[in-house]
Design goal:
mainly alpha; about 0% strand; transmembrane; Probable membrane transporter protein; TM_pro_TauE-like; transmembrane helix; cell membrane
Length: about 350
């Protein structure tokens, strides 16, 4: 698996991007008369100040905060939360990705390239043919279940996940194929339905299969979510349209996330990723409980039992992935030792 970490940095590229973005945003807000609309949506800007930090410092996109705030706290449609996630991440996570690339942080390039190609196939298919079939309630539950499973995983596996150093290198063609499968599958399902999530799936493959260092896995997950968000919002704008209200919320949040997500990349390098991941894990479990509480009249005990069973099924799949990773890592070590049993 190819890693890229040359010493020379090109932060001027990121500053150039910021200048271009803020010039465009100022033209929209002041030149086109949208200031009142942006000002009216200040609560989402406040929420995304925290959400953008999460986007840059964890494998969970800014939609991890934006989606539940809009859908659960502001009682907006789940489809609006999904479209907003694509829109706001197309600024915040793109800004973080440019910052990551400009700083020459190490990335799992082979798997990332596969995931990028896979997402280019899966995300359009999911947006056009799968997402329109998913009811509002199921969008909320898909989000709640997937995020809760990742939260629980980190609560009891955080020491192991945070303890990885470097990354086990397998065959690059195999890495590419795994990334391709992740891109197609996660792009067509969780990302197309909720607006987020492909980053978490790729991250899971890196830390559970490849035992990748968080310094590699998290920046790689940020880049795939940025690319998927750009594809998602472009498809929405060009083909299906976006939900009413997305533009106003985007105007308010975009200037915050353009700096907030890269700040998360920088700050977490100083304070460490473990405390942030634990905090976000608690939030992920909390939003599951919040969703079940808000939708209790529809879910009832039977629906709650099914939702909990779905979380358990996701955790089982993640544990199976971890076990498979253990087998692969042991095989790789034996090959490095010339076929002798791993020590």
């Amino acid at each position: 698996m190819t890693l890229l970490a040359p010493p020379k940095r090109h932060l001027w590229v990121w500053f150039l991007w910021l200048a271009g973005f803020y010039s465009t945003w100022a033209w929209l807000v002041f030149g086109q008369g949208h200031w009142d609309e942006a000002k009216a949506h200040w609560p989402i800007a406040l929420a995304m100040a925290f959400g953008s930090y999460i986007a840059g410092s964890t494998p969970m996109g800014g939609g991890t905060v934006g989606f539940p705030i809009l859908v659960l706290a502001f009682d907006m449609p789940a489809t609006l939360g999904r479209d907003f996630s694509f829109a706001v991440q197309s600024i915040g996570m793109v800004s973080a990705s440019i910052f990551i690339l400009a700083r020459r942080q190490p990335l799992a390039w082979s798997m990332l390239k596969g995931a990028l190609w896979g997402s280019a196939i899966g995300t359009p298919l999911g947006i056009l043919f799968i997402a329109p079939l998913i009811p509002e309630l199921w969008i909320k539950l898909v989000f709640a279940v997937v995020w809760a499973s990742f939260g629980v995983l980190h609560l009891y596996r955080i020491d192991e996940i945070a303890g990885h150093t470097g990354m086990t290198e397998f065959d690059e063609r195999w890495d590419f194929r795994v990334g391709l499968a992740i891109g197609v599958g996660a792009g067509a399902t969780v990302a197309a339905v909720t607006g987020v999530g492909i980053d978490m799936v790729l991250y899971a493959a890196l830390v559970l299969l490849c035992r990748a260092d968080l310094k590699i896995a998290i920046p790689t997950s940020v880049v795939i979510m940025a690319a998927t968000s750009l594809m998602g919002i472009a498809l929405k704008l060009g083909l299906t349209g976006v939900q009413p209200g997305v533009f106003g919320n985007w105007l308010a949040a975009a200037p915050v996330v353009a700096l907030g997500a890269p700040l998360g990349v920088l700050v977490v390098a100083l304070v460490g990723r473990r405390p942030t991941l634990l905090f976000v894990a608690v939030l992920c479990v909390g939003q599951f409980a919040w969703t079940c509480f808000v939708e209790w009249d529809v879910l009832g005990y039977a629906g709650l039992a099914l939702a909990i069973a779905a979380v358990a099924a996701c955790l089982y799949a993640l544990e199976r992935l971890r076990r498979w990773g253990g087998v692969l890592v042991a095989e790789a070590q034996r090959k490095r030792n010339g076929g002798a049993p791993g020590r």
